[in-house]
What we know:
alpha/beta; Carbamate kinase; 4-stranded mixed β-sheet
Amino acid sequence: MLIVVALGGNAFAREGGKVGLPEEQIERVKLAANDIADLIEEGFDVVVTHGNGPQAGLLSEKVGDYLSLDMIDAATEGWMGYLIANALTNEFRRRGIRRNPVVVITRVIVNKNDVVFQNPTKFIGPLYDKETADKLTRERGWAFRWDVRGGYRRVVPSPEPQGIMDIELVRLLLREGFVPITVGGGGIPVTINGEIHGVEAVIDKDLASQVLANAINADYMLILTDTDYVYLNYKKPNQRKLAEITVGEVEKYYNEGQFLPGSMGPKVLAAIRFLRSGGKAVYIGPLGRARDILKGVVGTRIIA
């Protein structure tokens, strides 16, 4: 059984989307390593992906004058991939699991004419108050939108992933028994027109994970995030959790606008696309509770 485990970038950050100190990051990654080791002990082959919203936001704020967004994507793949690989190696050794993680700095093909370049929606970075957001807009030309978590966050273009450029390497690593860590932060967006060129954007990691999952014929996707369920009417008085739902039902809710762009929306869309393309089930739930999610104790299960 092959499962793609997508780790949310916010799940590794402090409340409010701020990146913690190094020791905090290491502790948060241990939760993911424990989840992945649990899955391997349950008999799964695992491919790991991860988000980078808080981390990309931090780097763009600190070194954005020197690094383009595609370079920042590459930097966060190395940064977070390194932490995940170390945590996995330590957990595997502790449990006697004879597997090795490998970080793949992954390029993902996008269309340079994608309409999203005119309408940025992908959240990166921490929450700001309105005064600070307005100041950054004036000084740097950044775009901001309100985040339901309670503040303004920077939004950047998030083009549709068209294909995984380094997919054959991922397939090779799987065949040889490795645990690939790939399409970090959605991968590095590139276009191909004779030559390969990076693009100033951040691909949604869940949509890129879906393209990856179908390309390697994964059976399942597990999206680990900072919420315990997928909800209807999120953060409203009539909020309702979804424990199990069919792809047809969740697609209806998606088309009604129940799931916010840049937040739960891409996760649900990734689930729909994965299941419509042959996947068996998608699980969405909290980091640190992979076994409970698969058993139905917590989290949302979307079935074909």
